[in-house]
Amino acid sequence: MLRQYELVERVLAYDPDADEAMLNRAYVYTVQKHGTQKRASGDPYFSHPVEVAGLMTELKLDQDTIITALLHDTVEDTLATVEEIERLFGPDVARLVDGVTKLSKIETMSESERAAENLRKFLLAMSEDLRVLLVKLADRMHNMRTLHYIKSEDKRRRIARETMDIYAPLAERVGMYEYMREMQLLAFEQLEPEAYATITGRLAAIRSEEGAQVDAIALEIKKALAQAGMRVEVSGREKHPYSIWRKMAERHVSFEQITDIMAFRVLTDSEDDCYKALGILHRAWQMIPGRFKDYVSTPKMNGYRSLHTALIYSNAMRVEVQIKTHEMHERNEYGLAAHWSYKQGGVQPDAQVGWLRDLVEILDSSHDAEELLENTKMAIYQDRIFAFTPKGSLFQLPKGATPIDFAFAVHTNLGAQAVGAKINGRHVPLRTPLGNGDVVEIIKSRNSEPQLSWLGFVVTGKARAAIRRFVRQKERAEVAAIGRKLYEEIVERLPTKIGKKALNDALKRLKLAGEEDFMFAIGSAKLDDRQVMEALVPGSAANLPQEDWPSQKRAIAVRGLTPGMAFKLADCCHPVPGDRIVGLRRPAKGVEVHAIDCMKLADGIDADWIDLSWDARTDGAIGRLRAELYNRPGTLAEMAGIFAKNHANVVNLEMTQRENPFHTYEVDLEVRDLAHLTRIISALRASEAVAQAERI
């Protein structure tokens, strides 16, 4: 553990103008506040914030960040308050400490909810000042280094999983690769102990048997470059154990089948020398196609810059080579922390960190704890591709991203209005995965809106959060629309006319914020008819016998509502416009629409029934029919021709039985109404290719 004078001397070594007295006061404050508290290792608790502060000095961070590191656990684990810290150390330190501090233990929350709320607060604070992230990463790094002292295996695995899912990717996203690699290694040891032991054992064996080979290859690379008149530094190492394990898992190969376990780093004096060295190495040894990446001309989103290539050395040995300048290497290892030194003259949020703005947008859009954690993990994982707009703007996206993900990355409104896409000038479906270097053009329409089906293929947290938010808003609006129609029916049954005052009084009695909430509660069956009547006119339904309960006077039209939002067309009977329909309403489940003769209606006997109608201008629906075709060439084509002639689009076609001389198919068709479906069935029955056709 660093002693007080050692910590202060470290800061003064790179920042002679630092307030020595305040640094000493912060050190003493954390020692006093944590007092006799102990860590799982048995060490005094204050050793942890002191070590975290030591990590911050290695990054040469400013005085406020060092003090924040010293105090980061005082508010959470001692009687210290943010107000007291502000009084003693100033508003900037207080704000940073509050950002790093976890929420207090909230007993009513589940584990995932607590994790989500902690993450929510942390990300919001980080968006205002990235020093919060730097302290948090150092805090997690030291906790991981001492994780083995915790006796509970479940707790160790939980912390390791959180580190692997959240903090290691965050470190990668801000370019702090040293932190990322060490966190991944320590988490890997806890999560996959057998794999960790096997891989590290194999690497140790390679090191002892072939240790000289790494140095020999590094020397050969340096000689090849020196002969061309270049002065470079070359170093070699085995691949990171977690990186090897992930490659084994992704490629489904054994350790022996991994051919590029060794990696080499070439450091040059200038950017031009990087490309010169690349050309020399490609002439000296055969390069492996598809493995060259130029992050110098096109840096990663976190600012990482380097040339990556893979070469075939002697005896078909594959090695990876990274070529970068000394400055690039320094910035790559510590990322944004390299820009955050005391020399900057005051720390401001980095306006260029677009992914951080995306995280803040995800915070606003996420509905619950699981959704926040899911979307955040999707937003910070590191496997990326590059895609361009037609004007040349560059966007980084996760592997597997689609045009919809790209559209939301460009702008939320563009994603919401997307109706089509072109990739490299060619029209493609919206679910098409993007490739590295694709030029993506989004076709939009002001009348378009996000589709629920998009959630089945989008991969970015930003797109998923925006689509879910829109779906929730639209679903709420449509449920409220049903509720308003039911409300109008209920009002007509009241013994007296009511006005705006009666409605406002009802909202107060029901403790609802506004009229929209009232209509939503009616539409979602959270309030039944009796409760609504009693709230509007107290006593109006109290003495009314259940058997004399008045029924609806007119059916409620579903025109303008979207299937899958406020109501769902039942899969058992597939009602279409023209069918007599009723709705089954259950709390928080929306309305399920059935044809009046559906055999499964009896299952909803405990539900609230609503009389529904289609309205003359209702859009079409999907009808289902069964057709038995003669087993001879061309019959399926003839059936498809009948569908086309009658302007019906096939949504789904399934062969359900194959028994000579017949094949039986079930077909889902987009039809306008019952008359349209009936004409199609009649045309099928008239065809010589069809033995039998009926609606199901």
From TrEMBL:
Q: In what residue span(s) does the HD domain sit?
A: 45-144
| UniProt xrefs under SMART domains | HDc, RelA_SpoT
Q: What residue stretches are annotated with the ACT domain? A: 624-696
Determine if Transferase is one of this entry's keywords. yes
Which EC main class describes this enzyme? Answer: transferase
| E.C. numbers | 2.7.6.5
Q: Which domain of life is it from?
A: Bacteria
User: Which UniProt keywords are present, listed alphabetically?
Assistant: Kinase, Transferase
Transmembrane segments annotated in the record for this chain: none
This enzyme catalyses:
GTP + ATP = guanosine 3'-diphosphate 5'-triphosphate + AMP
Q: Name one GO cellular component term.
A: plasma membrane
Q: Which residues form the TGS domain?
A: 383-444
GO MF terms, alphabetically ordered: GTP diphosphokinase activity; guanosine-3',5'-bis(diphosphate) 3'-diphosphatase activity; kinase activity
Claim: Kinase is one of the keywords in the record: yes
Single GO BP term: response to starvation
What protein family does this chain belong to?
A: Belongs to the relA/spoT family.
State the function annotated in the UniProt record: In eubacteria ppGpp (guanosine 3'-diphosphate 5'-diphosphate) is a mediator of the stringent response that coordinates a variety of cellular activities in response to changes in nutritional abundance.
Output this protein's name. GTP pyrophosphokinase rsh
Q: What is the lineage of its organism?
A: Bacteria, Pseudomonadati, Pseudomonadota, Alphaproteobacteria, Sphingomonadales
